[in-house]
Amino acid sequence: MAFLELEDVHYTYRAHPALQALNWRWEPGQQWACIGPNGAGKTTLAGLLSKQLQHGSGKITLSPELTKSGCSYVCFEQQKALCDRDAQLDDSEFRSDARDPGTTVAMALGGPKALERATDWIERLQIKHILDRGLRFISTGEMRKTLLLRAILQDPALLILDSPLDGLDIDSQAVMTEVIESLLSTELRLLLLSRSLSDVPRGISHLLVLDSGEAVAAGALNDVLGRDEVQSLMHPPTLALGALPAPAYRDYQVDDYAPLLELSQVSVSYGDAAVLRDINWTFKRGQHCHLSGPNGCGKTTLLSLVTADNHKAYGQEISLFGQRRGSGESIWDIKQKFGVLNTQLHLNHARGMRVAEVVMSGFFDTIGLYDNWGGKQLEIAEGWLGALGLGHLTALPFDTLSFGLQRMVLLARAMVKSPLILVLDEPCLGLDAHHTGTILDAIDHIADNTDTQIVYVSHSIGEVPRCINQWLAFEPAAEGFILRCREGS
Length: 489
Prior knowledge:
Number of strands: 19
Largest sheet: 6 strands, mixed
Shape: globular
Number of helices: 17
Oligomer: single chain
Radius of gyration: 23 Å
Structural class: alpha/beta
Strand order of the largest sheet: 5-6-7-3-8-9
């Protein structure tokens, strides 16, 4: 009997076919990966198998083993759900220390009894130091490791991993790859979802290739990889970018000669934990910066200091756009000069909005569109969507887009007000090779044709725009990390 079989399975999401006539049989002893570009149907397939999605048509047959022990699914949406829940329960404003840790990693794993079972896994995944931290205060990579271990502890018959290397630094990718390879050699069945052939581990024996909800190919790994249609699908040409729209009006002025950002001997601690120590950084006119470092080193904290999202900037030697922080400017005076794209923004986007509305919310720095907008703002929003090859999506609901397309829409949102600085925190996270190439070209297009300067955060050296001419790197030190700066292309 097959471990799992799908016969003529269809699934429609908001009138858009996400899976179409899918037939697929998983025999005992096989280990499968499912690959395809953004919008291929991978996440929908995982949702049906994990029973997070209902009301599809066709027949799904599960083996007795899979029926009994079930399926665990590790994905980006899990992280969003946990963060949303903790945000709703946050009572920091009523606490004397003004800080609610929320659900800790140890609690998420199941408490003391679960931790006893997980001792070996905790060491292998290198997460012992974060067990007492709240989920909202760990990095994306640390969250992925936590969710993987939580899934393993559920003892499922099938474990689905959605892009497990996304958001991990190089060392963490090596740790995660080793863990996945070891799991593939056990009786546990794994289904790995990936946008890239390079992320398929050695222990995978079979490959399912999806595109627009349909199966392009399915079978033994080497047989499928040898097909021309699979290679063409996974290596499409980069889209040509359109002309950039005219810049939006800026109702402020800044000193043309002062650095845009200047930090001197800046330190940040939470309780007894020092996150940043003696940070020095000057970001001058004409520079485009690449910020790198391991998961948990403080990159996100550093960015939050300059984008007015962290109150610990007050009282420190921080100047933004030529003005000392805390000298009378409002948070909104600072935010209007920044365009921001990060994972947290994606996690918290407002539901039920059209694509054009999401982009226009960038004029107001809001999660959602609550202010009145005019025809000029719509014109600029549509111009940015067109410039990024997204003009045909303007009227569609944002929630119906694939994760990768949503990320590109959020890039348009970040640029509509013509910010002086565009902060991109892992902007290619969740994108297939096609959209990664497009977004990197778009960033260089912005750098070449506007006065917006780039601050780009990424773990992957291969995913860096050509415009970068300043390199900041957090490096391990005797206590925590130090920040080193290098200039030049």
